[in-house]
Amino acid sequence: MKKAVFIGAGNMGSALVKAACRALGPERVGVTNRTPAKAEALAREMGCQAFSSNEAAVREGEYIFLCVKPKQIREVIRALFPVLTAEKVLVSVAAGVTLCDLEAAVERKTPVLRIMPNTPCIIGMGMTALAGGMDAKEEHFTEIEAILAKSGRVERIEEGQMDAFSAVAGCGPAFLYPYIEALADGGVIAGLPRAKAMVYAAQMVLGSAAMVLETGEHPGKLKDDVCSPGGSTIEGVAELERHGLRAAAIDAVVAAWRKNAALGK
Predict the structure, then answer these.
(1) Span 190-209, pLDDT tens digits
(2) pTM for this one?
(3) Cα–Cα dist 252/172, whole Å
(4) Domain total for the chain?
(5) CA 16/CA 46 separation, integer angstroms
(6) CATH number of the structural domain spanning residue 245
(7) Which helix (H) or strand (E) segment is 223 a member of?
(8) Phi, psi dihedrals of residue 152, rounded to the nearest 5°
(9) Tens digits of residue pLDDT in 164-193
(10) Which of 173, 160, 135, 179 is nearest to 15 (CA)?
């Protein structure tokens, strides 16, 4: 038996397969994909097993990760229904598809849980939310946390927070990358080589995020620590405020949250 099998080898599915292989060992991980060659290439890279069909993967797997698009998940579950049992655990990555929806689709034949990872899982620095359905047990949560241990942080949350979590942590990297690029653009205007400016900006963001997590200080306090009276930093902060950086960030998260809520309908 495989501890974890992944149905879908897209960007997120591949990232989770790699994390699971690092956490469990590749011999305990399997993958399948609508395009078999993609699953086979990933299996060769990681040393895990590529299955010829979703049904074969489910028969051999204990924890079944559905890494497919929200509009495809019900169709995938219908096809898997004959091979689902109470001994299997179904884990959905689909945004907007609720635990209630999943339980109805499997007719509660098997426990279901939801996770919402983000793309930094690819390098082991991700942020993943985890919520469980009515039949999910503590052992299911702990096993999933172990499977995803090498993907980054895993946080248990109430399902009602999942869409909001996704808007911040799931969509957030796409909000941040243009900001890093823009900082580098400013550095180029100021005379820095493009490649150097990009490294400086990205490392600054990485270190600043680590400061928030490791010190536990409020970001406002950490900002104040950098801003000397009459200095250049407070001038830059004032310019960001004039251009509505905070309002734009809030609006981006709220727009993504509303879209997440609509995806499963």
Answers:
(1) 999 999 999 999 999 999 99
(2) 0.91
(3) 9
(4) 2
(5) 12
(6) 1.10.3730.10
(7) helix 219-226
(8) 130, -145
(9) 999 999 999 999 999 999 999 999 999 999
(10) 173
